[in-house]
């Protein structure tokens, strides 16, 4: 059972906006930043959002992140078929232990 | 552009020790940042195994700590994972990754492609 809680699945139609939530506690999300990873089928995870709301170079601005208290969210606007993937939230706790969410499988209908 | 590549046996017998190496190119692992291992059992989510700093300080998942050792070899620009007493539950794709500190937090910005390790007799 993952320390960070995500919905197992999410879906949307092309062009729609979808959000994925991530819930933690005071030892992880509540006191540290949140990162999001995208994992396309058969590939390694790719950093999508870091430090709650920062996008690495090359990540489209359709992807955005936010954090409030012990929860965080990933939003994808203008949904595209190539966004179909697994999405994981992650946070480091105060002892530099890594924590991942269980992952959310995004389906583009 | 930093690149990471995992290598090691793809098949390990139960009760034996799993050994993997991550070769890093494009960056000196002894200069800065953190280097770690994450695994993903087939069809399941990601699990953090542990991380080592450029100075050799280690951080391990409490649930795996008694069986895991991560070490650095700066002369070869590699870092390694050893996991003892493996069982079928340790069957997974193992990823190595670089973790950096920036914008107020830690994040893993570069990952290897992953290595499948199967535990079976």
Q: Tally of extended strands of chain A?
A: 9
Main beta sheet of chain B, described? 7 strands, mixed
Major sheet details of chain A: 6 strands, mixed
Q: Quote the average pLDDT of chain B.
A: 96
Query: C-alpha Rg of chain A, in Å?
Result: 13 Å
Distance between the termini of chain A: 28 Å
Count of extended strands of chain B: 11
Largest interface, by Cβ-Cβ below 8 angstroms: which chains and how many residues each? A-B, 28 and 24 residues
Number of H- or I-type helical stretches of chain A: 0
Strand content of chain B: over 45%
- Indicate the low-confidence ranges of chain A by residue numbers: none
Helix content of chain B: under 10%
Note the total helix count of chain B: 0
Shape of chain A: globular
Question: How much strand of chain A?
Answer: 35-45%
Which residues of chain B sit in consecutive blocks of at least 5 with pLDDT less than 50?
none
Distance between the termini of chain B: 39 Å
Assembly category: heterodimer
Structural class of chain B: mainly beta
Order of helices and strands of chain A: EEEEEEEEE
Which outline of chain B best applies?
Answer: globular
Question: How would you portray this structure in words?
Answer:
Chain A has 109 residues and is an all-beta fold. Chain A is built from no helices and 9 strands. Chain A has strands at 9-12, 18-23, 34-39, 46-49, 63-68, 71-76, 85-92, 98-100, 104-108. With 121 residues, chain B is an all-beta fold. Chain B has no helices and 11 strands. In chain B, a hairpin with a 4-residue loop joins strand 5 and strand 6 (58-60). The relative contact order of chain B is 0.31.
Provide tags for this entry.
heterodimer; A: 109 residues; mainly beta; 6-stranded mixed sheet; 3-stranded antiparallel sheet; B: 121 residues; 7-stranded mixed sheet; 4-stranded antiparallel sheet; globular
């Amino acid at each position: 059972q993952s320390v960070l809680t995500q919905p197992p699945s999410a879906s949307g139609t092309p062009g729609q906006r979808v959000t994925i939530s991530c819930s933690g506690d005071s030892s992880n999300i509540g006191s540290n930043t949140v990162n999001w990873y995208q994992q396309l089928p058969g590939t390694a995870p790719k950093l999508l959002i870091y430090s709650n709301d920062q996008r690495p170079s090359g990540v489209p601005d359709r992807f955005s992140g936010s954090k409030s208290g012990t929860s965080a969210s990933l939003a994808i606007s203008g949904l595209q078929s190539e966004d179909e993937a697994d999405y994981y939230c992650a946070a480091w706790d105060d002892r530099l232990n890594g924590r991942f969410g269980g992952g959310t499988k995004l389906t583009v209908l | 552009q930093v690149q990471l590549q995992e290598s090691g046996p793809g098949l390990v017998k139960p009760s034996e020790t799993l050994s993997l190496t991550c070769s890093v190119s494009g960056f000196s692992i002894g200069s800065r940042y953190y280097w770690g291992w994450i695994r993903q059992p087939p069809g399941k989510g990601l699990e953090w195994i542990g991380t080592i700093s450029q100075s050799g300080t280690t951080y391990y998942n409490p649930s795996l700590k008694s069986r895991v050792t991560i070490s650095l070899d700066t002369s070869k620009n590699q870092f390694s994972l050893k996991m003892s007493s493996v069982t079928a539950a340790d069957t997974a794709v193992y990823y190595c990754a670089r973790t950096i500190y920036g914008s107020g937090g830690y994040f893993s910005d570069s990952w290897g492609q992953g290595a499948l390790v199967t535990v079976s007799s």
